[in-house]
């Protein structure tokens, strides 16, 4: 199984709502990533987890809160978002975080988020 | 910004033609990867070339890497309508953890 799944596919939320994005992989990967992608732009890294511990936070606002409850799951909790946070949120995983022969990242299909 | 640049930004060709996309980057790298993204979907890994390699092939894909010029190119031969997508190069810097730094992307349109 080389699939990364993400739910929901689409999410519309108001600025006062609290919602969560979910990501799951069963490839035994120990590094998982959240990216944000605006239209016609490349993905931008938000967070990286390695062995269920937060390794990289790319200065993301606190209204985004990541969580890695186990090696297969990655959540992104959303609270008090702004309209400019509307984007495609992509999850990815790789075997390890450290550089090596298995540097490929596997991406999920993304969650299209709209903040009203 | 560490972000790489790709050109062209957009490319429109006919089926059967070859498509060439170029990527330039700024820092010393461990490897460079190319990804494809169909409209509004996740990215699919295409090919990885290491800093000590100069050329790599995978099916209809040919990737070159020139570390002295900090540039790479992706050639898709005999293109098909199904190749229509955005293509991103991504570099893994030579320091620190594996962290993909994406280029700006090339939008490829292949017409039947």
3D structure, described in words:
The complex is a heterodimer of chains A (116) and B (112). With 116 residues, chain A is an all-beta fold. Chain A is built from no helices and eleven strands. Chain A has strands spanning 4-7, 10-13, 18-25, 31-37, 44-50, 53-57, 64-70, 73-79, 87-94, 106-107, 111-115. Chain A is globular and about 35 Å long. Chain B contains no helices and eleven strands. Chain B has strands at residues 5-7, 10-14, 19-24, 29-37, 43-50, 55-58, 61-66, 71-76, 85-93, 101-102, 106-111. In chain B, strands 2, 4, 5, 9, 10 and 11 form a six-stranded mixed sheet that branches. In chain B, strands 1-3-8-7-6 form a five-stranded antiparallel sheet, with no helix packed on it. Chain B is globular. The model of chain B has no long low-confidence stretch (mean pLDDT 92).
Number of strands of chain B: 11
Uncertain ranges of chain A: none
Mean pLDDT of chain A: 92
What's the N-to-C terminus distance of chain A?
36 Å
Return residue spans of chain B where pLDDT drops below 50 for at least 5 consecutive residues.
none
Judging from the principal axes of the Cα atoms, what is the shape of chain A? globular
Radius of gyration of chain A: 14 Å
Q: What is the count of DSSP helices of chain B, taking H or I runs of 4+ residues?
A: 0
Mean pLDDT of chain B: 92
The residue fraction in helices of chain B comes out at: under 10%
The portion of residues forming beta strands of chain A comes to: over 45%
Give the ordered list of helices and strands of chain B: EEEEEEEEEEE
Order of helices and strands of chain A: EEEEEEEEEEE
Helix content of chain A: under 10%
């Amino acid at each position: 199984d080389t699939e990364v799944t993400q739910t929901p596919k689409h999410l519309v939320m108001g600025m006062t709502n609290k919602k969560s994005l979910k990501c799951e992989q069963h490839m035994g990967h120990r590094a998982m990533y959240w990216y944000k992608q605006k239209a016609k732009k490349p993905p931008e890294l938000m967070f990286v987890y390695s062995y269920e511990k937060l390794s990289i936070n790319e200065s993301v606002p606190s209204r985004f809160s990541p969580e890695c409850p186990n090696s297969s799951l990655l959540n992104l909790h959303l609270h008090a978002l702004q309209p400019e946070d509307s984007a495609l949120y992509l999850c990815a995983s790789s075997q390890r975080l450290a550089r090596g022969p298995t540097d490929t990242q596997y991406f999920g299909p993304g969650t299209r988020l709209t903040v009203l | 910004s560490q972000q790489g640049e790709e050109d062209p930004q957009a490319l429109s060709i006919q089926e059967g033609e070859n498509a060439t996309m170029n990527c330039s980057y700024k820092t010393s790298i461990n490897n460079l990867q190319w990804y494809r993204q169909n409209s509004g979907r996740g990215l699919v890994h295409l090919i990885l070339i290491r800093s000590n390699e100069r050329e790599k092939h995978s099916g209809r894909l040919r990737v070159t890497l020139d570390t002295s010029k900090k540039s790479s190119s992706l050639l898709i031969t005999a293109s098909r309508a199904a190749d229509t997508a955005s293509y991103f190069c991504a570099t893994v810097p030579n320091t620190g953890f594996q962290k993909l730094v994406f280029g700006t992307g090339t939008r490829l349109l292949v017409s039947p």
